[in-house]
Amino acid sequence: MISMIVRRFFQLIFLLFGISFLVFSSMYLAPGDPAAMVGGPTATASDLEAIRDNLGLNDPFLVQYGSYLANIAQGDFGFSYQTRQPVAEAIAVRFPNTLKLAVASMIVAVIIGIFAGLISALRHNSWLDVTSTTFALAGISIPNFWLGALLILVFSVNLQWLPVAGLSNSWFTVEGMKEMILPAITLGTSSAAMIARMVRSSMLEVVRADFVRTARAKGVKERNVIWIHTLKNAMIPVITVIGLNFGGLLGGTIITEKVFAINGVGRLMIDAIAARDFPMVQGSVLLVATLFVLVNLVVDIVYTYIDPRIKYQ
Amino acid sequence: MKKNLLLLFTIITALLLAACGGGSASKSSNEGTDTNKGKEKKEAIESFTYASLTDAVGLSPIMTNDSASSNVTEHVYETLFKRNADSKIEPLLAESYENPDENTWVIKLKKGIKFHDGTDFNAEAVKYTFDKLRDPATAAPRASLMAPVDTINVVDENTVEIKTKYPYGPFLAALSHSNAAIVSPTADKKQDLMKEPVGTGPFKFVSWTPGDQVVLESNPDYRDGAPAIKKLVFKVVPEVSTAISMLQAGEVQFIDSIQAEQLSRVEALKNVGVEKIQGTPQYFLTVNHSKPEFANPEFKKALASAINRDAIVKKLNGLGVRSDSVIGPKVFGHKDSADKGGTSYNLEKAKELVKKNGYGDKTIKLLAANRGTYPLMAELVQAQLTEAGFKVEIESMEWAAFLDTARAGKFDLTFLSWSNVTGDGSELLYPNFHSANVGSSNMTQLKDPELDKLIEQSRTTTDQKVREDYLNQANELMLKNDSVVIMYHGVVTAALNNEFTGLELYPTGKWDLSGVTRK
Amino acid sequence: MAETATVAAANVKKAPSKEKTYQVVAKRLLKNKLAVIGLIIIVLQIGMAIFAPLITSYDPVKQNLDASELPVFSEGHWLGTDNYGRDVWSRIVFGARISLVVGIVAVTLGLLGGVTLGLLGGYYKKLDGVIMRIVDLLFSFPGILLAMLIIAILGTSLINVAIAISIWSIPSCARIVRGSVLSIKEKEYIMAMKSLGASDFRIMVKHILPNAFAPIIVFATMRMATAILSTASLSYLGLGAQPPTPEWGAMISQGQAFMWSSPHLTVVPGIAIMLTVFAFNVVGDGLRDAIDPNMDIQ
Q1: What is the C-alpha to C-alpha distance for residues A9 and A290, in angstroms, rounded to an integer?
Q2: What pTM does this model have?
Q3: Residue B343 gets which letter from DSSP?
Q4: Exposure of B440 in the CB half-sphere (CA atoms within 13 A)
Q5: Quick check: is C234 in a domain?
Q6: Which of C143, C233, C281 is the closest to A137 by Cβ?
């Protein structure tokens, strides 16, 4: 186990190195001059030259990338071209919102997903199963920018039940919860659908497995068969899906944050790409990628605990 | 089959609910405001929120040049001069000025003004600010505002003398630019003004949560009395439709720069009043003057004849003013005669020219940024040009890539715009059309020695009457050459919650909330 | 259950009776009502795409400013018109072409990349480490962000969207193919081929690849759904189709400004996207169930 974690750690470093190079070179290659974005449309040629010099944009590519890496090695993620503030600070302000959104969406997704999946599996081939399967597939198929806009229209504007946008209140207050509902549904729908499908197929498979039959034969109560023997075993693949989805959610908040005006890392990334704010793009992408890898690592560890058959060499 | 029915049912429900949207009455609740009655003459407004589409880049006027930042800084800092709602320049922090000779500006300052941190506002502060702004080491985005300045001298506590390298006509306009606002020297040395601004304005800085909101509070010591708004919030709401919903729900009290498509929705809100005034921003179509086939006079004539600008202005729902004049009606240097002085729409003539010269044989690329009204203009103009026989393809780009491409002159046709914060004709013509700025702000790639000369003369004359004359000549020259096709001159907008009044909206699209009171 | 096992086995064997296997799969697919509905939608859409000019009476980019923002069921425009007076039905129909073509191009490119990486990685032990690291790298990169970066470099156009989206599907495809390769590589008949002196390329393409065919087909069908959805998302962000191209995502993004006065401009293309994506998803799902319900496709 320890050796697995150590190996994964080295893989992570390699990954981050690769990602930083990918991002750095793509931002370098992309048309668009960061100095022009800082200077605005009214800046003259000499204004721009001064800004370029000041930001170190006149250095050759490898010099720029090298000094960036050297700084990162010392834990310094550099300064935003736009605000001239440390990138780490800007991300620290926004990350809690993204995390909140991802966690809330995951909660929505897990509750709905497991519930719908169980119903489907327990009432296999009934109309309930068909309905829930249809909904699950529709959930994966719905464009989430469209879903978000429709939800705002219906629940915030017409019915006025929920606030339109923003996450300005803290977590565990009524206001804070209310603000979270629509964004969490918007972002969580497709994960809910994926979880539901996984729960359904996994349950169906486990129900037919030998140990469940044995349990039934031994006269274990039906309720216990479902909740103790079946569910526990059916959860193993479900946890992978949850892990994968959670990692994906962190990256997938981009559109939801835009629609609901949430001040998160996703929106920071879009704005930074649009403004050619290279250090900011780098910092936020590295963060999201690291989290994705870490979440998957945790999933793998949890896996070995619930399923002792799996061993990592 | 049940499953499909269910799906269908959901879709229909969503459709119906969505369709009901237009008709539903708005129940406005005012969570953001408190109805406590103040004991002063002006009833205090506990909290007032403005929804901004983008976050401020920073809060130092020296280091920023974007409208989201200047919206905030204009409430915290003040400039020496200010362009009022009638486009006339009047003193703000300055008391008066005089020109002993055309290269010298002696500016008297108002007395007894203090920065928010207690520092005295004086000639030293002015010198400090302007020196910092023009210092190459600062790399200020608008250092060019001070480009003609040679020396800055403190004459006495309240008098500053600025010498320019050459006579500089639009200097007062430059001094009223929000990037030339005066900062507190003590604060600038002590802290980062980008994060903690200190000025002399009607509002004091409280806090900034980047990406979320900036909070200001009323300055109790302000010389004209403290503003009624006690807490002023600039909240970032990146989706326009969300911002409008928040305005309707009473979560924000004020939004600005409403787009044509959104206007009818905002105007239908019962708790909101919309203010529209003719403004200085302008939008134009230009050929790439560095490519001879497009710079050809007959091509430009055909282009101008093919574009029905009235139809485009009509599509803007009243948010555009039709005029051929390059220098807009609200900009210094405008003459009414120029409003109809350009090549007018004449489809038959355009068709004839296109046919005669075979302009339709080659595909022309129409470059357009993918924000604001550019996509709208691009789609309309493409259809009109196609009608006249041109073959046009739209190439839309995100803003950064667009700026890069347009600056480098890698386009055939493109739309450009200019918001003209100073409201001065020279400040429009010089950056956009003078050959010295090709490669940076002159994206039209126009190099016309005759025009260059007129623009230079308008800049190096301090007599405002003479300047007006030069500007007018330059304008007429551009109309004669069909240098650009003016699509429309902007109308600036703001929507304010009905319970409030006293918003000052300027033709530049800027606004001042210090006079806002409860009705 | 027993049935499935035979089919799965039949797939792994040297495919002794291909015809029969396909018949069994087709039969089972047609029993799945949801999948049949999906198939019908897909066939209709392909029909719409091919016969677009015949089933519409307006040019999808032709403007008519005097008839703009007409509501649904207006005379002559049963789905109304947009802000420029363009017929929404025509735009939806022609938009079907774009969605299908971009989807097919993106999935094909993605398969080419994924299959190549998967084959090489599975077959050559030495390459496996490097290739799997590349796959991990692509995996941990938020898909939409990767697409945004690629489009930032290449510029805004549908072709570039297809390229960006194809890269997105390379890692999953590579993993699936690699898995299949690993499971068959050690089989006797492959070993036999090798000892008979067949070239690696021949073995890979002629003997290993066909065995990975089933998961690839299922994967491709489901990826069509993802590709169409992603194209719409990117166009929604203004990074896809150039105006006035009638792309569905772009239509939503344009229509959103009129959501309060003309909600159909947002709702109609949204339904079009949803139905299409839904169709590809259910067919993909049905195919998987029909071939082998335990197939692992992420």
Answers
A1: 10
A2: 0.80
A3: P
A4: 22
A5: yes
A6: C281
Interchain contact C66–B (C-beta under 8 A): no
Helix H, strand E, coil C: the string for B448-462 is CHHHHHHHHHHHCCC
Which residues contact residue B25 at a Cβ distance below 8 angstroms, ignoring those fewer than 6 apart? B270
From the list B21, B370, B383, which residue is nearest C260 (CB)?
Answer: B21
- Give the span between the Cα atoms of B341 and A129, in whole angstroms: 72
The parent domain of residue C182 ranges over 26-291
Closest CA to B50 of B254, B238, B229, B219: B254
Length of chain B: 519
d(CA C262, CA C257): 9
Name the minimum distance, in Å, from the CA of A138 to any CA of chain C.
6
Helices (H), B358-445: 374-388, 399-407, 426-433
By DSSP bridging, strand B500-501 and strand B484-497 are unpaired
Which of B7, B58, B245 is the closest to A156 by Cβ? B245
Helical (H) or strand (E) element with C103: helix C88-123
C38, C283 contact by CB (below 8 A): yes
Residue C58 in contact with residue C244, Cβ under 8 Å?
no
Q: Does residue C148 belong to the interface with chain B, where contact is any CB pair within 8 Å?
A: no
Which residues neighbour A75 within 8 Å (Cβ) at sequence distance 6 or greater? none
The SS3 assignment for B289 reads coil
Q: Check if the beta carbon of residue A82 is closer than 8 Å to that of residue B65.
A: no
Q: How many other β-carbons are positioned within 10 Å of the β-carbon of residue B436?
A: 16
Is the minimum CB–CB distance between C238 and chain B shorter than 8 Å?
A: yes
Separation between Cα atoms, residue B320 and residue B260, nearest integer Å:
9
Three-class secondary structure of residue C187 per DSSP: coil
Number of structural domains (chain C) is: 1
Residue C172 covered by a domain: yes
Q: Which residues does B39 contact at the CB level (< 8 Å), separation at least 6?
A: none
Going by C-beta distance under 8 Å and a sequence separation of 6 or more, which residues neighbour residue C192? none
Interface confidence, given as ipTM, is 0.79
- What does the alpha-carbon distance between residue A242 and residue A194 come to, in Å, rounded to a whole number? 9
Give CA–CA dist B68/B189, Å, rounded: 25
Of the candidates B6, B142, B147, the beta carbon closest to that of A42 is on: B142
Question: Closest chain A residue to C146 measured between Cα atoms?
Answer: A23
CATH of the domain at C212: 1.10.3720.10
Model pLDDT, residue B355: 94
The verdict on residue C197 lying in a domain is yes
E strand or H helix that includes residue A268: helix A265-274
The residue to which tokens 């200190």 are assigned: B198
> How far apart are the C-alpha atoms of A131 and A116, rounded to whole Å?
10
Does residue C14 belong to any structural domain of this protein? no
Name the interface residues of B facing C (CB cutoff 8 Å).
Answer: 3-4, 11, 14-15, 18-19, 21-22, 240-241, 259, 261-262, 264-265, 268, 311, 314-315, 370-371, 375-376, 378-380, 382-383, 393-398, 401
- Going residue by residue through chain A (313 aa), what tens digit of pLDDT does each one get? 678 788 878 878 888 888 888 888 888 888 888 888 887 777 777 778 888 888 888 888 888 888 888 888 887 888 888 777 888 888 888 888 888 888 899 999 999 998 888 888 888 778 888 888 888 888 888 888 888 888 887 887 777 787 766 666 666 777 778 888 889 999 998 888 888 888 888 887 777 776 677 777 777 777 777 777 677 777 777 777 787 777 677 667 888 888 787 888 888 888 888 888 888 888 888 888 888 778 877 877 777 776 655 544 3
Whether B359 and B302 have beta carbons less than 8 Å apart is answered as yes
pLDDT band at C202 (very low <50, low <70, confident <90, very high): confident
Q: Cα torsion for A6, A7, A10, A11, to the nearest 10°? A: -140
Q: Which domains does chain B have, with CATH numbers?
A: 6-35+43-200+499-518 (3.40.190.10), 279-491 (3.10.105.10)
